[in-house]
């Protein structure tokens, strides 16, 4: 195991792992601080437990480059529970959760969209949406959650790039898209942190933010 190889780890707690602490920190808005504490405690590489599943956290630049590089893709597999948790919002046939030939197929389908010419055509959209977000933040006099703001900006850029100018002409289009994704992601986090998605029979019941 990774622990026997000297990888530092949070204590193993049967079945639940660190889910209780993760849920508590998320509800307090301190999830980032929690991971910073783990990094201070263990270093740039460590293990923690997401329920019954182990998670290897890597923050070493050279190792990250190896993980995301195409030449080493066959050496890494995405965890099974990731697909279970994200299936309600993105399905299972996509680049983010797939492995092997399915991942290769999805990547080839997406490659044209990320061609230099296409990306260059989106620069004006990215600039416009970013400037709008900056202006909104500068006008705010209350505390700002940058994690939420960056997520909102990302969704705005994606939606504008996909739907073009028509997206901007729709009343409250940005708010509708952001609210929809935020609510779904919140439900996924709620179900995952309570291990609802880990049990097929339980996850099919029409309760707990299904």
Short description:
With 210 residues, the protein is mainly alpha-helical.
Question: Could you please describe the fold and organization of this structure?
Answer:
With 210 residues, the chain is mainly alpha-helical. The chain folds into two domains: 2-76, no CATH class; 111-204, no CATH class. It contains eleven helices and two strands, in the order ααββααααααααα. It has a two-stranded antiparallel ribbon. The chain is globular.
What topology emerges from the helices and strands here?
Layout: H1 19-27, H2 31-42, E1 45-50, E2 53-58, H3 61-68, H4 80-90, H5 100-110, H6 116-121, H7 123-139, H8 146-163, H9 165-169, H10 173-193, H11 200-203
Antiparallel strand pairs: 1-2
Q: Which tags fit this structure?
A:
mainly alpha; two-stranded antiparallel ribbon; 2 domains; 210 residues
Low-confidence stretches: none
Q: Strand count, sense and closure of the main sheet?
A: 2 strands, antiparallel
**What general outline do the C-alpha atoms trace?**
globular
| Mean pLDDT reading | 83
Which structural class matches the secondary elements? mainly alpha
Beta content? 5-15%
- Helix fraction, binned, reads 55-70%
- Helix tally? 11
């Amino acid at each position: 195991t990774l622990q026997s190889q000297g990888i530092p780890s949070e204590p193993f707690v049967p079945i639940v792992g660190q889910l209780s602490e993760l849920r508590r920190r998320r509800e307090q808005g301190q999830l980032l601080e929690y991971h910073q504490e783990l990094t201070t405690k263990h270093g740039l590489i460590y293990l923690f437990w997401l329920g019954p599943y182990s998670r290897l956290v890597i923050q070493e630049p050279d190792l990250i480059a190896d993980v995301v590089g195409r030449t080493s893709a066959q050496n890494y597999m995405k965890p099974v529970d990731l697909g279970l948790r994200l299936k309600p919002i993105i399905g299972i046939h996509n680049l983010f959760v797939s492995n092997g030939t399915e991942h290769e197929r999805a990547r080839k389908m997406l490659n044209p969209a990320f061609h230099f010419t296409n990306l260059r055509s989106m620069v004006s959209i990215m600039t416009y949406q970013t400037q709008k977000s900056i202006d909104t933040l500068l006008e705010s006099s209350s505390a700002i959650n940058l994690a939420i703001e960056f997520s909102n900006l990302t969704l705005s850029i994606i939606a504008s790039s996909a739907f073009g100018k028509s997206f901007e002409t729709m009343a409250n289009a940005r708010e509708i898209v952001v609210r929809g994704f935020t609510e779904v992601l919140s439900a996924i986090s709620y179900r995952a942190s309570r291990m609802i998605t880990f049990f097929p029979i339980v996850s099919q019941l029409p309760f707990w933010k299904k």
